């Protein structure tokens, strides 16, 4: 899936975009080998009860997008991946891959740096409408804020992120209307939104 936004940029900027995407693709390839080895060691791959590498990629994307504040949320998160039910075992494996930082209150960490996480999330969701629907609907306030901010940042680099963000319109409206959303996040979101503000009027009508 082509996710880089090059058609709108001057040629020299487009070249920089392509170079950056190549670097991200290489970094992602290293991460995927790490996931494969860890999943194989944990006995998660193959067999009648196992999962595929495609599912592993989607699990990591869902985890990076939604995060989890508790073990129960992480188990439910796994169940959003098509063909994979909620699983404490897979949730624990994902936490071993990406533990929370020592100063993080969440139960689950995510891919770093943020740009790599954004690249992977957009790539996986754009490749699977079923995964996108599962991950972009039925969100609580914490999940909605994470989703909206990640996709808004990603819109700067990936055309596909615009369509994904548009699917979260109720969440976008909720984040903008939440008095607890920090001003810097509101400004970043407003600057990143690729569609006209009239869209919000339609969403809230």
What are the main properties of this structure?
single chain; 205 residues; mainly alpha; 0% strand; disordered C terminus
Structural Rg = 17 Å
- What oligomeric state do these chains adopt? single chain
Q: pLDDT below 50 for ≥5 consecutive residues: which ranges?
A: 197-205
Secondary-structure element string: HHHHHHHHHHH
Largest sheet: none
Would you tell me the overall average pLDDT? 84
> Considering DSSP H and I runs of 4 or more, what fraction of the residues is helical?
55-70%
- Estimate the global geometry from the Cα principal axes: globular
Strand content: under 5%
Structural class: mainly alpha
Distance between the termini: 34 Å
Could you give a short description of this structure?
The chain is mainly α. Helix content is 65%, strand content 0%.
How would you summarize the topology of this molecule?
Blueprint: H1 11-41, H2 53-66, H3 71-78, H4 88-97, H5 114-127, H6 129-136, H7 141-154, H8 159-166, H9 169-177, H10 183-192, H11 198-204
Helix pairs in contact: 1-5, 2-5, 3-4, 5-6, 5-7, 7-8, 7-9, 7-10
Describe the structure.
With 205 residues, this protein is mainly α. It is 65% helix and 0% strand. The two termini are 34 Å apart. The model is unreliable at 197-205 (pLDDT under 50).
